[in-house]
Amino acid sequence: MSLQARTAAADVVIVGAGIMGAMCAYELASRGLSILVIDNGTGGATGAGMGHLVVMDDNPAELALSRYSIALWNTLRKRLPEACAYRNCGTLWLAANDEECGLAEAKQARLVEYGAQSEWISASALRQLEPMLRPDLAGALKVFDDGILYAPATARWLLHQQDGRITVQEGDVTRVEGNRLCLSEGGWLTAPAILLANGLGAFRLLPDVPLRPKKGHLLITDRYPACINHQLVELGYAASAHADDGTSVAFNVQPRPTGQLLIGSSRQFDTLDKRVEFDVLGRMLMRAQDYLPGLGELNAIRGWTGFRVATPDGLPLLGQHPDQPGLWLALGHEGLGVTTASGSARLIAAQLLGEAPPFDPAPFRTERFVGVASHTPGAAA
Amino acid sequence: MKNHKTLSCDIAIVGAGPAGLAAARAASVSQRSIAVIDDNPLPGGQIWRDGPQVSQLAMAKDYRRVLSLPTVRYLPGTRIVASLAAGALLLEDAQTSYRLDYEQLILCCGAQELLLPFPGWTLPGVTGAGALQALIKSGASVAGERVLIAGSGPLLLASAATARAAGALVSGVYEQTDRYQLINFGVGLLRWPGKLAQAFKLFSTRYRWRSHVIEAMGDRRLEAVRIRQGDAEAVIACDRLACGFGLVPNTVLAQHLGCSLEDNAVAVDRYQQTSQTGIYAAGECTGVGGSELALVEGEVAGLAATGKVEQAQALFTHRAYWQRFARHVKEHFGLRPEIRRLARVDTLICRCEDVALSVLAEEQGWNAAKLQSRCGMGACQGRICGSIARELFGWSLPEPRVPLVPARIETLMACSEKDMS
């Protein structure tokens, strides 16, 4: 089919060339549609994040989306060139005590339900697997299908697939109205469908969408090959990730293919200040050293910050704007955008083309927080 | 934290080269407390670099005496990791990290050599021209080695003289600028007789103009260099090649502190104050001009920072004299266009991350290049390849990120200790 109207810029115009926009372009172009991707070149969460592909299970909707997404990445990963730096390193969810062993057990039960393979690693086996970790940990849950990749290169690779049906253009979108948008150089573009996948940039275009930035710090070390072999995350991570206020830190370390360690994580609300805050960075590093006692001796070479864009319930907005026909949203993926790009793009494509959805789309519907109806009491329930 | 200390001073001076020492000396008269932070183990900066194979000038020794005054705390071998907040720097040396609180700051961060890529420039045996001097001064033996010096600027002759004095066989000094420019430069030096005398002293019969390196050749290390001289080419066997294309101001810390740049150097007013109140800058980081200019600028900064405005004003004429010299050098050693085209598609631009020219040439700017190719993401933080990209592609310098230099994670943790206890 062709959705293309005579004056349209493309079948679908996507705003944002990060991992979400790129994956949506890839998915829609694979169905034969022509795609124009517009990006202002300022960079966002794709360049700032860790690139951890991880099944998250804090609620059934998140688990369904992330599990489905990981399965899609697993079919795609064989085609990714080395620049994308994909590694199937798995995630080790670290249990510090008996209580966290209980959390691990419950996590494993939930993962099994969705077909995600995992295995309990005993304390002694963990010491063998990751000798840099402190020796008194109670054990870990290993999730096998999880991995890592370098998201900026992956986004670019995706945009170069599909036989030239994807065009990327630099431009700054200043307004959107249904299926048309205005560029700062002047002039309106019209297309059968416009998709916003521009993360933080959506604030300016849709001020009534309740998106909240959560600032994060990351730090990367010099090269220390093979001292860590899995993505290491504390089981208390979810508690930090879902705190509603204040500043929190959690242990989350990734082995880059270069031999560098990428160290996270921190969360702060309602700031758009890009500067590294030494107080927060210091707390994050102390948390990391708590798990990796030798960390203090290693050299850091670069620290930076980024912003996760979150909706009030932590789930992304995936679908058509309820009051603006032709305007589609793929926003609010918080810290999970790289993982869920594949599943989100598949759901957007299915909805846009009237196919059966690959999983229940209800938890992600835009009506939760967008449009007139969402502002009436009880609508978002 | 075990090895963390808090220090404070009235005036913090970054760099113990001529500008930093002159600033410290001028400021010390006011009996204010001063801290001098320098990343070298010994004072003197690049030009007065101390080491086993150096006999210091009397003037350099004299200036160094300021470091032993009771009001001056000298922190050698100490790197600046970041600015923690207005008036506070995070530092580390080999053992300890420090928080240094200051009232006023004088940046005398110097310059770094401009290296431009040509095929083979990453072979062992190839260094910068200034880097060869530094190597020799810190004790490297070059006796009996065949050394070739190339690039541009007065530093080439100084480097050749250092190498010869250390027993090297300097087989040639190849300057890219042409004869007309060199003659004008020489004639112009009549206005700075001291510099003219220095040029005579350093001049070598092996000096060649309108000549440059095309390629460094060798299997695992340098064996020969292909040189273009005028319209002719020649291959010259050698053990070392020292090739530098002049100096570029070191502006990383100033940028990090929010100081404005002008013409790729730290912008300062008549009193050497930067765009940030209370932060001064002097010497090569405000524009390359040599040690004489650095000394007078450092003195002005030291006086201005301690409120001695009239004494600072009295130096303006002398400073202008050396500023004209700086312009004179700059005008006659501009790079010819072919110097920027020496690299081939497979020549590495970023040595830390092995990024070749062909990869960068496809990118639109530094940010995209960094994100896609990892250029500048290695331990040198883009200091070398950032300057190269600016020369080759006209990209603006990367925004500095913390830590400004590789730093122990322990040092970065020390900053929030108070909040945790």
Account of the protein in words:
The complex is a heterodimer of chains A (381) and B (421). Chain A has 381 residues and is α/β, with parallel strands linked by helices. Chain A is built from ten helices and 19 strands. Chain A is globular and about 65 Å long. The model of chain A is unreliable at 1-6 (pLDDT under 50). With 421 residues, chain B is of the alpha/beta class. Chain B folds into three domains: 4-112 and 248-329, 3-Layer(bba) Sandwich (FAD/NAD(P)-binding domain), CATH 3.50.50.60; 115-245, 3-Layer(bba) Sandwich (FAD/NAD(P)-binding domain), CATH 3.50.50; 343-393, no CATH class. Chain B is built from 15 helices and 22 strands. In chain B, the strands form six sheets. In chain B, strands 1, 2, 3, 4, 5, 6 and 19 form a seven-stranded mixed sheet that branches. In chain B, helix 1 packs parallel to helix 8 (291-305), helix 3 (129-137) runs parallel beside helix 4 (155-165) and helix 8 packs antiparallel against helix 10 (316-332). Chain B is globular and about 60 Å long. The A-B interface holds A 41, 43, 47, 83, 152-153, 156, 170, 219, 221-222, 263, 276, 278-283, 285-286, 288-289, 295-304 and B 82, 84, 90, 364, 367-368, 371-372, 377-379, 381, 401-403, 406-410, 412-417, 419-420. Chain A: Keywords: Oxidoreductase. Chain A: Residues 11-350 form the FAD dependent oxidoreductase domain. Chain A: InterPro entries: FAD-dep_OxRdtase, FAD/NAD-bd_sf.
Find the biggest chain interface.
A-B, 33 and 28 residues
The main pleated sheet of chain B reads as:
7 strands, mixed
State the shape of chain A. globular
How many H/I helical runs of chain B? 15
CATH topology-level fold name of the largest domain in chain A? FAD/NAD(P)-binding domain
Say how many strands of chain A there are. 19
Global structural class of chain A = alpha/beta
The helix fraction of chain A, in percent, is 25-40%
Task: Encode the helix/strand succession of chain A as letters.
Answer: EHEHEHEHEHEEHEEEEEHEEHEEHEEEH
The parts of chain B where pLDDT drops under 50 for at least 5 residues are: none
Contiguous low-pLDDT stretches of chain A (5 residues minimum) are: 1-6
Tally of contiguous helical segments of chain A: 10
How many domain modules of chain B? 3
Shape of chain B: globular
Indicate the proportion of strand residues of chain A.
25-35%
- Topology, number of strands of chain B: 22
CATH class assignment of the largest domain in chain B: Alpha Beta
Helix content of chain B: 25-40%
Helix-strand category of chain B: alpha/beta
